[in-house]
Amino acid sequence: MEAQDELDELRKQHNKLASLAGELAHEIKNPLSIIRMNVELLKEDVESIDSPEARRAERRINTVINQCSRLETMLNDFLRFTRLSNLELKAGNLNQQIAQVLDFVEPQAQKQNVEIVRHFDNQLPSIKMDPQTLEAALLNLVKNALEAMPEGGTLLARTRIIRTGVALDLIDTGCGMSANTLMNLFKDFYTNKEGGTGLGLPTAKKIIEAHGARINVHSELGRGSQFTIEFPTPRRI
Fold first, then answer.
1. Do strands 165-172 and 127-129 pair parallel, antiparallel, or not at all (unpaired)?
2. I want to staple 224 with a disulfide (CB 3.0 to 4.6 A). Which of 84, 145, 173, 189 is the partner?
3. Enclosing domain of residue 190
4. What is the secondary structure of 139-203 as a DSSP string?
5. Digit-coded pLDDT (tens) for 27-66
């Protein structure tokens, strides 16, 4: 019983710390947005000046804008990371949810010469979901697939009924991942991408688990990767 009390106390402390960290991140976002907006206005002024000094200033301004974008991405990932304890799960359509994400990335996929193939089971039962957070998780996974195919390829999105509920497969023909990357893929702050926060995939995994689901990954260098998410049917949540 004492061990359980200690565990409950640790959870309370963790939740309190996460809440404080989330509030701090939110407070940082506001001045950061103002900084970025003013730097972008400054860039417009510099662009109208034709001189070597102006071009050097423009390059430095672009560096500041890029770093602001990186910080905003990190803060958004962190805020999602700390706000997963109060999801409101309601019955929803997984086909519709992944279709919205694919529609959103379609223009980028076309630019990269990536073909998106959709194989959706029209008889798929509903799942319990929080649409906003689940969309963020799926978008992160799809964007990672596109990043693995900078020279083109195929992304297959497939939904299917399984014994325990429904599954979503995201299969790409990209560069694949090493055994070390697979081992660390969902660890907080782990990244091998320049400018990455290391919170995107861990947050996606936590969102998926908050839906009572689980995610599995198979990958091979040079041949691509498959992410499979298995959602329980409503009666199992």
1. unpaired
2. 173
3. 90-236
4. HHHHHHHHHT-TT-EEEEEEEEEETTEEEEEEEE-S----HHHHHHTTSTT---STT--S-HHHH
5. 777 788 888 888 888 888 888 888 888 899 989 998 888 8
